[in-house]
Amino acid sequence: MARTYQKDTERLERIMMLPIGYHVGFACIHGAHGSRTWELNVFHCDETGEIDFDTAIAQGTLQEVETALHTLMAADRAYAKTLDHHATTPVEPSKPKPKPHEWHSRFENIPHPDLVSEHTPGWCDEDAGDPVVASRFIFRSHNDEFGLDFDVMENNPGTVSIGLLPSDWDWNVQTAEELLTLSDHTGRLRQWLADCATVTDWIRKHEGEAHHG
Fold this sequence. Notes:
By secondary structure, the chain is α+β, with helices and mostly antiparallel strands. It has four helices and seven strands. The mean pLDDT is 82.
């Protein structure tokens, strides 16, 4: 048996990537009343030639063990053919997914009003980061002296949100002079608020007549 299937068992050893010194072979176990049980097994011999490791891959009649060996060899051949086919078959390029309709601000083609103060960043097109509703800032301004933020946000579809909120401004008053210094800047605050009012008026005037791009 060992000589008959020597090429197959040696190939099976390579398929299984057995460590050096481990082999695949046949064994016949003699039982009571002349019965025989055949095994296809993995075994290892020590330096003296004695088997110190032996585990069965398949066990049964001779025909069953031969069938197991043929099945393992056939599975390996099918696997090799699959790899060859995969390597030589051209892969069709995947079709790009259609892009969703790009959303444009309804105000993007309308001239902006003139403003007096400097605004950071002013007119813009920034993602508001809302995971539920597609929203973009179209105007933002920060007043550092008085810690105020003025934002105009356009949602898709339909609504415009305008907000004047305190920013993360934490100034502990230590002296009266600090408050008097703020009073010196009220003129600039008045002009900044006037610009915010101009933006608000412009938004409200055009939001009804403007349309999505």
